[in-house]
Task: structure prediction
Amino acid sequence: MEITNFRKMMAVVLFSFGLISNIFGLINAFIHNNGISTYISTSVCLLSIIILFIITLIRKDYKSFLTWSVILTGMVYFPLIMGFYLPDGTPLIAGTRNPATFYTYTFIIPPSYGINVERKKELVLPILNLLLLEIVIINRLDLNYGIMYLVIYTYVLLVTSFFSMIIQKHYNQILLENTRITKIAMRDELTRLYNRHHLQDYEDTEQEWIPIMLDIDNFKLVNDKYGHDEGDRVLQQLASIMLRYASDNFIPFRYGGEEFLFLSKMSEESTDKYILDFFETVRRELHTSDRQHRTISVGIGKKSVLNDKSIKCADINLYISKNNGRNCVSKNNEVFYS
Result:
């Protein structure tokens, strides 16, 4: 189970317990007519935990809920309620013993907070909470019961916190490794350009792009004449030129084989100027190891939300370039520059 989901589960448990305890205590207070101070204090605690949980659901920050639940319980709930009634409605008069209530808090509060502990210094708050509860317990009950509570609470808190810190450490390492693997999976191994898998990140947005398809003319002849190692070198050379032109507004991909793709966020006019400059640079610099120049064909699509249709438009223009002698740029279903 992921730590986030575990925190969510513990937050629900703690909220449910706090909600039921407060409602039960409030009903008992009214039945026994315990006075306005009891009604107000119990209602304040009930309302606080409800508001806290609503905020938690909105922000999806369950760690904060568990932290503030400890503060609410230890520094507000117990000192306020124990002057009147236990959470189950039992009056705390001289001689009263109700270990069931404290057992429940002992085994719910420490683990709920313990799973939040990522560094040792984060133990300060639950320890302060424990000391405050100890003062209340010893004052209202007896020393022996207070010591028993102290031992159980401390043991559960420290054990839970210890495992939480270990799990969190390994969890963070796993997240970093997953991030690294994802980045590797999103890049083409040969050229280090983004691959087609990474296009999904751009298809899931409302941002409009101009897709530009290009491929190396007669690339099969390079492989046949010079071998695949030379073909790979030419692909890497083209990718290197593409990376020089790359920016947040002009993103290069290896689409597959000798086909490549640019996504432009610029205006159509700026994109045309930029791609023509790139096209001329490739004409000058792309060559085989024996200095034989290689050319590319380019197809420019229309600016729109990125999807299969918009890429297909660029692909159609690419084939118009290839069918018109290659070594040219096409857009709007006709040769635009040669």
